[in-house]
Amino acid sequence: MQIAVIGMGTMGPGIAARLARGGHGVAAHDVKEAAMDRARGQMNAVDGVLDALEIGDDGGTVEFFDSLEEAVANADLIIENVPENAELKAELYGALAPLVAPDSLVATDTSGISITKLQSHIVNPERFVGMHWSNPPHIIPMIEVIAGEQTARATVDAISDLIRGLGLIPVVLKRDMPGFVENRVLYALLRECVELVEQGAIDPDDLDTCVKWGIGYKLSVIGPMRLLDMAGLDIYGSVASFLNAELCNRSDVSRLVTAATEEGRLGMKSGAGIFDYTEKELRELPLARGAKLVAIRKILEGRN
Q: What's this model's pTM, rounded to 2 decimal places?
Protein backbone atom coordinates (compact mmCIF):
# COMPACT_ATOMS: atom_id res chain seq x y z
CA MET A 1 0.00 0.00 0.00
CA GLN A 2 1.15 3.55 -0.73
CA ILE A 3 0.57 5.77 2.30
CA ALA A 4 1.09 9.52 2.70
CA VAL A 5 1.73 10.88 6.19
CA ILE A 6 1.05 14.62 6.28
CA GLY A 7 2.56 16.36 9.30
CA MET A 8 6.00 15.54 10.69
CA GLY A 9 5.57 16.82 14.22
CA THR A 10 5.88 14.71 17.37
CA MET A 11 4.06 11.69 15.95
CA GLY A 12 4.86 11.79 12.23
CA PRO A 13 8.31 10.17 12.10
CA GLY A 14 7.29 7.25 14.31
CA ILE A 15 4.10 6.61 12.31
CA ALA A 16 5.98 6.75 9.01
CA ALA A 17 8.73 4.41 10.18
CA ARG A 18 6.29 1.87 11.66
CA LEU A 19 4.23 1.78 8.45
CA ALA A 20 7.40 1.29 6.41
CA ARG A 21 8.45 -1.64 8.59
CA GLY A 22 5.13 -3.22 7.62
CA GLY A 23 6.13 -3.16 3.97
CA HIS A 24 4.31 -0.01 2.91
CA GLY A 25 5.68 2.81 0.78
CA VAL A 26 5.41 5.98 2.85
CA ALA A 27 5.53 9.53 1.54
CA ALA A 28 6.19 12.07 4.31
CA HIS A 29 5.40 15.79 4.09
CA ASP A 30 5.24 18.88 6.27
CA VAL A 31 4.78 22.52 5.30
CA LYS A 32 7.61 23.48 7.65
CA GLU A 33 11.12 22.80 6.41
CA ALA A 34 12.42 22.63 9.99
CA ALA A 35 9.93 19.86 10.80
CA MET A 36 11.05 17.91 7.74
CA ASP A 37 14.71 18.26 8.70
CA ARG A 38 13.98 17.23 12.28
CA ALA A 39 12.01 14.19 11.09
CA ARG A 40 14.81 13.07 8.78
CA GLY A 41 17.21 13.33 11.72
CA GLN A 42 14.96 11.21 13.93
CA MET A 43 14.57 8.25 11.60
CA ASN A 44 17.75 6.44 12.67
CA ALA A 45 16.76 6.64 16.35
CA VAL A 46 13.23 5.43 15.58
CA ASP A 47 14.60 2.54 13.52
CA GLY A 48 16.88 1.65 16.43
CA VAL A 49 13.87 1.34 18.73
CA LEU A 50 12.04 -0.81 16.18
CA ASP A 51 15.11 -3.04 15.95
CA ALA A 52 15.09 -3.36 19.73
CA LEU A 53 11.44 -4.44 19.53
CA GLU A 54 12.57 -7.07 17.00
CA ILE A 55 10.10 -5.75 14.42
CA GLY A 56 11.12 -7.06 11.03
CA ASP A 57 11.52 -4.98 7.91
CA ASP A 58 9.18 -6.05 5.09
CA GLY A 59 10.79 -3.77 2.53
CA GLY A 60 8.84 -0.57 2.95
CA THR A 61 10.39 2.85 2.47
CA VAL A 62 10.00 6.40 3.76
CA GLU A 63 10.53 9.24 1.31
CA PHE A 64 10.26 12.93 2.12
CA PHE A 65 8.49 15.29 -0.29
CA ASP A 66 8.49 19.08 -0.22
CA SER A 67 5.07 19.43 -1.88
CA LEU A 68 1.71 18.09 -0.78
CA GLU A 69 0.85 17.16 -4.36
CA GLU A 70 3.93 14.93 -4.69
CA ALA A 71 3.36 13.33 -1.30
CA VAL A 72 -0.23 12.24 -1.95
CA ALA A 73 0.27 11.19 -5.57
CA ASN A 74 -0.95 7.58 -5.97
CA ALA A 75 -1.69 7.32 -2.22
CA ASP A 76 -4.11 4.57 -1.22
CA LEU A 77 -4.27 6.09 2.27
CA ILE A 78 -3.52 9.58 3.55
CA ILE A 79 -2.91 9.99 7.28
CA GLU A 80 -3.39 13.59 8.41
CA ASN A 81 -1.20 14.40 11.38
CA VAL A 82 -1.24 18.22 11.51
CA PRO A 83 -1.67 20.16 14.81
CA GLU A 84 -4.85 19.89 16.88
CA ASN A 85 -6.75 22.73 15.24
CA ALA A 86 -10.00 21.97 13.41
CA GLU A 87 -9.65 24.97 11.08
CA LEU A 88 -6.11 23.98 10.12
CA LYS A 89 -7.24 20.44 9.42
CA ALA A 90 -10.19 21.69 7.35
CA GLU A 91 -7.80 23.83 5.32
CA LEU A 92 -5.67 20.77 4.56
CA TYR A 93 -8.73 18.74 3.55
CA GLY A 94 -9.69 21.50 1.13
CA ALA A 95 -6.21 21.35 -0.40
CA LEU A 96 -6.46 17.57 -0.67
CA ALA A 97 -9.84 17.64 -2.47
CA PRO A 98 -8.47 17.96 -6.04
CA LEU A 99 -5.51 15.66 -5.29
CA VAL A 100 -7.13 12.62 -3.68
CA ALA A 101 -8.38 9.74 -5.81
CA PRO A 102 -12.05 8.81 -5.23
CA ASP A 103 -11.07 5.37 -3.93
CA SER A 104 -8.39 6.65 -1.50
CA LEU A 105 -8.93 6.57 2.24
CA VAL A 106 -8.18 9.54 4.49
CA ALA A 107 -7.49 9.05 8.21
CA THR A 108 -6.90 11.66 10.88
CA ASP A 109 -4.57 11.16 13.84
CA THR A 110 -6.43 13.79 15.86
CA SER A 111 -6.18 13.21 19.61
CA GLY A 112 -9.78 14.15 20.27
CA ILE A 113 -11.55 16.38 17.74
CA SER A 114 -14.86 14.88 16.62
CA ILE A 115 -14.48 12.76 13.50
CA THR A 116 -17.99 13.76 12.45
CA LYS A 117 -17.04 17.43 12.69
CA LEU A 118 -13.88 16.94 10.64
CA GLN A 119 -15.46 14.82 7.93
CA SER A 120 -17.89 17.60 7.10
CA HIS A 121 -14.93 19.34 5.44
CA ILE A 122 -13.79 16.47 3.26
CA VAL A 123 -14.68 14.97 -0.10
CA ASN A 124 -16.02 11.41 0.12
CA PRO A 125 -16.70 11.51 3.90
CA GLU A 126 -17.64 7.83 3.87
CA ARG A 127 -13.94 7.12 3.26
CA PHE A 128 -12.76 9.24 6.22
CA VAL A 129 -11.94 7.76 9.63
CA GLY A 130 -10.14 8.47 12.89
CA MET A 131 -6.88 6.55 13.35
CA HIS A 132 -5.57 7.68 16.73
CA TRP A 133 -2.03 6.49 17.40
CA SER A 134 -0.66 6.77 20.92
CA ASN A 135 2.64 8.54 21.59
CA PRO A 136 5.30 7.26 20.96
CA PRO A 137 3.54 5.69 17.95
CA HIS A 138 6.34 3.34 16.95
CA ILE A 139 6.31 1.73 20.41
CA ILE A 140 2.70 1.74 21.67
CA PRO A 141 0.89 -1.11 19.89
CA MET A 142 -2.72 0.07 20.38
CA ILE A 143 -4.47 2.33 17.84
CA GLU A 144 -8.02 3.66 18.27
CA VAL A 145 -10.27 3.50 15.19
CA ILE A 146 -13.19 5.95 15.22
CA ALA A 147 -15.99 6.28 12.67
CA GLY A 148 -17.81 9.54 12.10
CA GLU A 149 -21.51 9.65 11.30
CA GLN A 150 -20.82 9.26 7.56
CA THR A 151 -17.93 6.78 7.75
CA ALA A 152 -18.62 3.53 5.91
CA ARG A 153 -18.15 0.26 7.76
CA ALA A 154 -15.82 -0.86 4.96
CA THR A 155 -13.51 2.06 5.79
CA VAL A 156 -13.35 1.05 9.46
CA ASP A 157 -12.66 -2.55 8.46
CA ALA A 158 -9.92 -1.54 6.02
CA ILE A 159 -8.07 0.54 8.63
CA SER A 160 -8.48 -2.18 11.25
CA ASP A 161 -7.07 -4.75 8.82
CA LEU A 162 -4.11 -2.46 8.08
CA ILE A 163 -3.38 -2.13 11.79
CA ARG A 164 -3.59 -5.89 12.35
CA GLY A 165 -1.35 -6.41 9.33
CA LEU A 166 1.32 -4.35 11.11
CA GLY A 167 1.08 -6.65 14.12
CA LEU A 168 -0.63 -3.89 16.11
CA ILE A 169 -3.94 -3.79 17.98
CA PRO A 170 -6.97 -1.92 16.60
CA VAL A 171 -9.54 -0.79 19.16
CA VAL A 172 -12.77 0.16 17.36
CA LEU A 173 -14.93 2.62 19.27
CA LYS A 174 -18.70 2.17 19.18
CA ARG A 175 -19.31 5.89 18.75
CA ASP A 176 -17.54 9.18 18.06
CA MET A 177 -16.96 11.41 21.08
CA PRO A 178 -14.50 14.21 22.03
CA GLY A 179 -11.21 12.71 23.23
CA PHE A 180 -12.31 9.21 22.19
CA VAL A 181 -11.52 6.72 25.00
CA GLU A 182 -7.79 6.76 25.70
CA ASN A 183 -7.58 10.52 26.15
CA ARG A 184 -10.82 10.76 28.12
CA VAL A 185 -9.37 8.36 30.66
CA LEU A 186 -5.93 10.01 30.55
CA TYR A 187 -7.27 13.55 30.97
CA ALA A 188 -9.50 12.51 33.87
CA LEU A 189 -6.36 11.16 35.55
CA LEU A 190 -4.30 14.24 34.70
CA ARG A 191 -6.99 16.61 35.97
CA GLU A 192 -6.92 14.97 39.39
CA CYS A 193 -3.10 14.83 39.43
CA VAL A 194 -2.74 18.53 38.57
CA GLU A 195 -5.37 19.45 41.15
CA LEU A 196 -3.56 17.56 43.92
CA VAL A 197 -0.27 19.29 43.12
CA GLU A 198 -1.87 22.72 42.77
CA GLN A 199 -3.68 22.35 46.09
CA GLY A 200 -0.40 21.45 47.83
CA ALA A 201 -1.35 17.88 48.70
CA ILE A 202 1.84 16.47 47.13
CA ASP A 203 4.95 17.53 45.22
CA PRO A 204 5.13 16.79 41.46
CA ASP A 205 7.94 14.24 41.83
CA ASP A 206 6.10 12.38 44.58
CA LEU A 207 2.89 12.44 42.55
CA ASP A 208 4.70 10.79 39.65
CA THR A 209 6.19 8.16 41.96
CA CYS A 210 2.78 7.44 43.48
CA VAL A 211 1.13 6.92 40.11
CA LYS A 212 4.01 5.03 38.44
CA TRP A 213 4.53 2.55 41.26
CA GLY A 214 0.91 2.39 42.40
CA ILE A 215 -1.88 2.35 39.86
CA GLY A 216 0.40 2.65 36.84
CA TYR A 217 2.28 -0.52 37.75
CA LYS A 218 -0.97 -2.46 38.16
CA LEU A 219 -2.76 -1.03 35.12
CA SER A 220 0.03 -2.14 32.78
CA VAL A 221 -0.98 -5.71 33.62
CA ILE A 222 -4.61 -5.46 34.76
CA GLY A 223 -7.03 -3.20 32.88
CA PRO A 224 -9.41 -0.93 34.84
CA MET A 225 -12.51 -3.06 34.34
CA ARG A 226 -10.74 -6.24 35.45
CA LEU A 227 -9.20 -4.28 38.31
CA LEU A 228 -12.75 -3.66 39.51
CA ASP A 229 -13.34 -7.40 39.61
CA MET A 230 -10.03 -7.99 41.37
CA ALA A 231 -10.76 -5.39 44.04
CA GLY A 232 -14.40 -6.34 44.38
CA LEU A 233 -17.37 -4.36 43.08
CA ASP A 234 -18.74 -4.05 46.61
CA ILE A 235 -15.50 -2.40 47.74
CA TYR A 236 -15.51 -0.05 44.76
CA GLY A 237 -19.13 0.88 45.39
CA SER A 238 -18.44 1.59 49.04
CA VAL A 239 -15.40 3.82 48.43
CA ALA A 240 -16.92 5.54 45.37
CA SER A 241 -20.02 6.43 47.37
CA PHE A 242 -18.04 9.03 49.33
CA LEU A 243 -14.86 9.56 47.29
CA ASN A 244 -16.51 10.51 43.98
CA ALA A 245 -17.91 13.64 45.60
CA GLU A 246 -14.38 14.68 46.60
CA LEU A 247 -12.72 14.26 43.20
CA CYS A 248 -11.87 17.22 41.00
CA ASN A 249 -14.60 18.04 38.49
CA ARG A 250 -13.44 21.44 37.26
CA SER A 251 -14.29 22.27 33.65
CA ASP A 252 -11.55 24.88 33.17
CA VAL A 253 -7.78 24.36 32.98
CA SER A 254 -5.77 24.57 36.18
CA ARG A 255 -3.88 27.79 36.87
CA LEU A 256 -0.79 25.65 37.45
CA VAL A 257 -0.87 24.83 33.74
CA THR A 258 -2.12 28.13 32.31
CA ALA A 259 0.38 30.22 34.30
CA ALA A 260 3.30 28.07 33.15
CA THR A 261 2.07 28.30 29.56
CA GLU A 262 1.85 32.09 29.75
CA GLU A 263 5.49 32.13 30.91
CA GLY A 264 6.54 30.01 27.92
CA ARG A 265 7.13 26.95 30.11
CA LEU A 266 5.59 24.42 27.70
CA GLY A 267 7.40 21.30 28.83
CA MET A 268 10.32 19.50 27.24
CA LYS A 269 9.79 21.29 23.92
CA SER A 270 10.78 24.59 25.58
CA GLY A 271 13.23 23.18 28.13
CA ALA A 272 10.93 23.74 31.11
CA GLY A 273 7.38 23.00 32.20
CA ILE A 274 6.35 21.51 35.53
CA PHE A 275 10.03 20.57 35.78
CA ASP A 276 13.22 22.18 34.44
CA TYR A 277 15.38 20.22 32.00
CA THR A 278 19.08 20.43 31.21
CA GLU A 279 20.32 20.00 27.65
CA LYS A 280 21.65 16.60 28.65
CA GLU A 281 18.26 15.51 30.00
CA LEU A 282 16.53 16.69 26.83
CA ARG A 283 18.88 14.46 24.83
CA GLU A 284 18.86 11.44 27.09
CA LEU A 285 15.35 11.24 28.56
CA PRO A 286 13.54 10.27 25.34
CA LEU A 287 16.06 7.49 24.69
CA ALA A 288 15.91 6.18 28.25
CA ARG A 289 12.10 6.26 28.32
CA GLY A 290 11.94 4.55 24.94
CA ALA A 291 14.21 1.76 26.16
CA LYS A 292 12.02 1.20 29.23
CA LEU A 293 8.83 1.15 27.14
CA VAL A 294 10.44 -1.42 24.83
CA ALA A 295 11.41 -3.59 27.81
CA ILE A 296 7.94 -3.38 29.35
CA ARG A 297 6.24 -4.18 26.06
CA LYS A 298 8.40 -7.28 25.61
CA ILE A 299 7.46 -8.46 29.09
CA LEU A 300 3.74 -7.86 28.53
CA GLU A 301 3.97 -9.76 25.24
CA GLY A 302 5.78 -12.63 26.97
CA ARG A 303 9.02 -12.02 25.04
CA ASN A 304 11.34 -11.32 27.99
A: 0.94
